[in-house]
Amino acid sequence: MSITVIGAGILGLYTVFELLEEGIDPKSINMVAQYIPGDQSPDYTSPYAGAYFSLTIGEESLPLSSYTYEKLEVLKSKLGDNCGLGKCWSTEYQHEPLEEDYLKKLSFANYEIVESSDPRIAHGVKYMAWVFNPPKFTQSIMKYVLDKGVSLEVKRLNHIKEINTPIIFNCSGNGAKKLGGVEDSTCYPVRGQVVVIRAPHINECVSFWSEDESTYIIKRPDSNTDECILGGFYQDNVGDMSTYGFETKDILERTSSIYPKILNGGTIDDLQILRVVAGLRPGRKDGPRIEVEKIETGHIIHNYGAEGSGYLFGLGMAHKAVKKFLEI
Ligand SMILES: Cc1cc2nc3c(=O)[nH]c(=O)nc-3n(C[C@H](O)[C@H](O)[C@H](O)COP(=O)(O)OP(=O)(O)OC[C@H]3O[C@@H](n4cnc5c(N)ncnc54)[C@H](O)[C@@H]3O)c2cc1C
Predict the structure, then answer these.
(1) 124/116 Cα distance (integer angstroms)
(2) Residue nearest atom 53 of ligand 1, based on CA coordinates
(3) How many domains does the chain have?
(4) What CATH number has the domain bearing residue 188?
(5) Whose CA is nearest to atom 15 of ligand 1?
(6) Are 302 and 291 in contact (CB under 8 A)?
(7) What number does the ligand 1 atom closest to the CA of 174 have?
(8) pLDDT > 80? residue 211
(9) Which residue, 26, 124, 13, is CA-closest to 72?
(10) Which domain holds residue 127?
(11) Which of 13, 32, 34 best tests ligand 1's pocket when mutated (most atoms within 8 Å of CB)?
């Protein structure tokens, strides 16, 4: 049976990988995407992610993140070294203590609780986390699936009717709002801005989440410029890819306050800033949509709306979407 996967962001790529893992013939899979790894556009979120793993986003998403956590080991073994996926220690600081029941569910990541003398922090969860170099990682998966025999068509679709296969996976991210036949009005962009610095002395991730603040330091793997990503912002319904100096200043102050080690004994002015970037996460009112829709010509399996977690939920989302297809 022929299958089309719309989208070559991390969700489309993970979906094709999961299809191959289920033994689907690569020659029966065609990817259709306006933007592919290597491209940059406000309509293509994946290159702009940090990106790191997180254990503490919320209980309802743990099946997605725990599946991804384990399956990334398999993906890495297939992609090989220098594929843009690595592991390093990560400490996620909490402003309120996490409940025992929730902590028990994190056992897959073999975490430990760490204390902090910072009065804003209740405790931290430290574990060996996955970290991603999004441009490199997406290119590595793209190469892997094309080498297997999957085909790719680079074009913009105006309507889902332009696809003539009986099975369509819709991994169109923010594009789901405008794509004819989908037109999901509950989708909205969630803007983020990050500062990329050169920091060879940093080998870990540190983050601090409170109700009104998301501050993170991400060691980027397989980067030949020793990159570290400092963030960030979550701005609902903001579709602006401009970057702002006052936000850069705020990010540098917050990250160096929570983790002074980035300063390496110097000041904020001494930091070697490589670039400042903004990106638009694919937000959706009710969270990710992983759902089968029957249409005249077959079925669409929707798999979009990952917002700020496409890398860390994505294999779990793709697995769920592919299982739904296998049940049709
Ligand atoms: C600043 C920032 C930091 C982030 N940090 C993290 C992090 O640390 N961890 C994490 O897990 N996630 C992070 N994210 C979120 C992550 O980047 C997204 O969840 C993920 O990239 C979404 O991927 P996607 O494949 O759904 O969408 P996209 O990457 O946008 O891909 C959509 C695809 O669909 C195609 N498409 C859409 N419409 C059409 C059409 N009409 N015709 C043809 N093709 C179409 C596009 O061309 C593209 O190929 C971050 C995001 C930002 C902006």
Answers:
(1) 7
(2) 279
(3) 1
(4) 3.30.9.10
(5) 308
(6) yes
(7) 30
(8) no
(9) 13
(10) 3-326
(11) 34
